[in-house]
Every structure is written in structure tokens, then in C-alpha cells.
Amino acid sequence: MTTTHPPIQVGDAFSVGKLTPRQLLALAASAEPGTTDPVEMALGDTLRREYPDLQVPEVLPGESSPARRDRRYSVARVRAFPGSEGAIRDLNVMRGDLEAVMGAARAPREIRSVLRRNAQMASMRGARPLAVASARVQPDGSLGPYRMQGFVALRTTPARGFAEETALRPGEWVRVNVWSALLRFQHWLNVVVVFVLSCTGYYIMDPFFGPPARAGEPTGYLMGWFRLVHFIAAFVWLAVGLTRVIMAFRSRDRYLRWPALWPLRRKSDLVNLGQTAQYYLFLRKHAPLYLGHNPLQQLTYTGVYLLGAVQMAVGFSLYSLYHQDNAFWALVATPAHWVGVPNLRLLHTMIMFALWAFVIAHIYLAVRADSLERHGGVSSMVNGGVWLRRGSKPADAPVIE
Ligand code: HEM
């Protein structure tokens, strides 16, 4: 959005009261006629341009008091404001710094927290939130309590995408190559193979379509195809697992070797683990910075590797039952003899659901971390590189220069 006053631009309005965003914008724009305040002028311009049917509410001369050093908000009396449900009222509007306005207005705790969080997001995009609260003027002329209405995001620089901002300040962010091409290839192969194994495995467990099994009637070979695809994908997955084990022994990249799979070596690792968990539970604003995986993430991935290994062992133990005349497969079948085939099938299915739960949480956390921390974590699984601010010090790497 642009205004005729280039220094200030108006972004989104975030309403927590009954006002629509455009009514909130109108309230925030209320000004004395002929005002020279740059914020009021920018808001008025935006309102006139984007919502030409909305009037900038009138403030009579002498009925406003600007923000001061000791009171970081302004107060003005707005006449005949067309508010929610079409009610026309005289209001006092308070505008200014979010914490200062929240300190003077009423708002339940959860509203304050939502406002802070959204204002923080706006600030991360380079905007400054202009908080708005209002109080009704009662028929007897007295003033009701101030209630929080929301905020309007203001910017002093043109709104740009993150990529454009980064390109304008090339020195601020540094791209570090972390994930090797082979690891990325394995990652996406895992995605495809586990998807295929899940679909075919689910069908083996519950053949919910295809010819019904009726006594004496042929059922065709559909189940045979599902099993064949399951077994081919299983051998592909075994190959992926084996190459990962070879990498853990032979790779020159420390992020891929065995020690990296166990992230808890020093006391500080435990502290960072706790802080990361608090961050994920919304109890902390920032998590410790890591170039590779944070300890919680690494423990989870190591757990998933183990789960995958157990799933393969269980799967091949079931598979071996069809080849009992062979000494090797007879040995692989041992677990089936220990716990019984039904228990093994149950375990195989339960691990499938555990893997699905992991995939859902993994996608959510990867997208969340990428958008909040802006390190490009999601694309790093395609191009291998993550972005860190110059001068930052990850817990698992030297200062980024
Ligand atoms: C190397 C890995 C794997 C091997 C060797 C393997 C092998 C097998 C075998 C032999 C069966 C029984 C087929 C039959 O009796 O007709 C089976 C069933 C099944 N597989 Fe796998 N599998 C593997 C991985 C997976 C994965 C990763 C999943 C899901 C994420 C999965 C899900 C299932 C399910 C749900 C069943 C049906 C269980 C039942 O009700 O019997 N499998 N698998």
C-alpha cells in the first residue's frame, strides 16, 4: 500500500473488539480537520483511498490531546462514530504504544496475549503497531471504561516480502550449507516410500475396496498387487536405511555421523532441550539457536530412526514366514515365533500409526519454525542451506561471519 505521504504506510488492522477491521481503521484515523500529524494523515489517506464509502470520523478542534513523553498515547473525542451494529455514538479514542494503551484500557488476559503475539508478528515484518482503545461517552456526558479495540500496523519503509528485504540488506543474513545432497535425497525417498508402504499396508490390514471375499468365489489378484508393491517398497526402504547406516560410519560431515544422533552430552544440552520444549509449548519467546538440529528435534529423529528399524525388523519377520524353507528367512522369522504372528502384525500396524503422528507433527513444526525463525528450514531439505543472521552464535557451531 502506498500513501501520498511516503514516510508512513498503513498495513493491516487487527481487531479484537466488535469493530470490523475497516471500522477500526476509521477509528484510528479520526483526526481534527486539517491535522498535520503524519500518522493521522497517512491513516486518513488510506481510509479515503481504500474505503471511499467510510468517513474519517470527526474530532472537533480542541478535543484531542497528543501523546506525551510520560503518556505514550493520544486521546481524542470522536463525534457520531458509526460503530458496531450501526450504532452511532460519541466516543473517546485512545491511540498509541501497545503496552501503554493496554495499561490504560480494559482487556482480558487472553486478549492481551493475542494482541502482543500479533503485534510481535507485525514487528517482525518491519511494522509498528498503533494500538487503539475506545470509551463510550454516556448520555450524561460521563466517560465509560476504555476497552481495547485492536491495532493498526504502520510502516515507515515500503512493505516488501522477506526475500526482497533480505536482498536489499545482503550483509545481514548468511546462508550456510548444512544438509548434504545424499541426505536430502534420502529424506524425500523416505517420504515416497513410507507413503507407498502406508497406503499398501493399510489396504493389507483392511481391504476396504475390491471384490468381497465370498466362499467359493475368486477374488482376483488385487491383494496380490498391493502386497507386491508393499514388498518392493520395503526392499527400497531397507536400501535407504542401509545407506544411512553407511553414512553414519563414513561421512566426513559431522552432522551425519553416529555422535550427532545423541545430542545430550553436556549440561548445557539439557538446559537447551528444556528451553526448546518450553518454546514449543508457547512458554518461552525464543528458543536456543542451532545450525543443525536442536536437541529435542534430534532426539525425535533418532527415535524415528529406531522406530523405522523396528518396523523393518517386524516387516521382514512377517515376510520371512512365506520363505521358511530357506535358512536365512527361517532365522529372520524368530521374533514371529517368540511373540506370535498376530502380535507382530499388531505392532507393525501400531508403528504405522506412530509414524503418521510423527509426520503430522513434523510438517506442522517445520512450517512453524520456518515462518517464525525465518531460517528457511523447509527449503533447506531441497537446497541444503539454512539462513542465519550474521554475528549470531548457534549452540552447535561457531559465530556466523
Ligand atoms: C522394510 C519395511 C517393511 C516390510 C518388510 C514390511 C512387510 C510387511 C509384510 C510382510 C506384511 C504382511 C503382508 C501379508 O501378510 O500379506 C506387512 C503388512 C503391513 N505393513 Fe508392512 N512392511 C514394511 C514397512 C511398513 C511400513 C513403513 C508401514 C507403514 C508405515 C507398513 C504397514 C503395514 C501394514 C499396516 C500392514 C498390515 C498389517 C496386518 O494387518 O497384517 N509396513 N508388511
Runs with pLDDT <50, length 5+? 1-6
Number of helices: 13
The overall number of domains is 2
Strand arrangement, largest sheet? 1-6-5-4-3-2
Helix content: 40-55%
Overview of this structure, please?
- A hairpin with a 5-residue loop joins strand 3 (73-82) and strand 4.
- This protein has 13 helices and eight strands.
- It starts with 8 loop residues before the first strand and ends in a 12-residue tail after the last strand.
- The strands form two sheets. The chain has a six-stranded antiparallel beta sheet with strand order 1-6-5-4-3-2, sandwiched between helices.
- The chain is 49% helix and 15% strand.
- The chain binds protoporphyrin IX containing FE (HEM).
Write the layout of secondary structure elements.
Blueprint: E1 9-15, H1 21-29, H2 38-50, E2 58-65, E3 73-82, E4 88-96, H3 98-104, H4 109-124, E5 128-136, E6 147-155, H5 162-168, E7 173-177, H6 181-205, H7 222-250, H8 267-280, H9 295-320, H10 327-332, H11 334-339, H12 341-373, H13 377-383, E8 385-389
List keywords for this structure.
Calcium-transporting ATPase, cytoplasmic domain N, 401 residues, Fumarate Reductase Cytochrome B subunit, alpha+beta, 6-stranded antiparallel beta sheet, disordered N terminus, two-stranded antiparallel ribbon, binds protoporphyrin IX containing FE
Q: What's the gist of this structure?
A:
With 401 residues, the protein is of the alpha+beta class. It has helices at residues 21-29, 38-50, 98-104, 109-124, 162-168, 181-205, 222-250, 267-280, 295-320, 327-332, 334-339, 341-373, 377-383; strands at residues 9-15, 58-65, 73-82, 88-96, 128-136, 147-155, 173-177, 385-389.
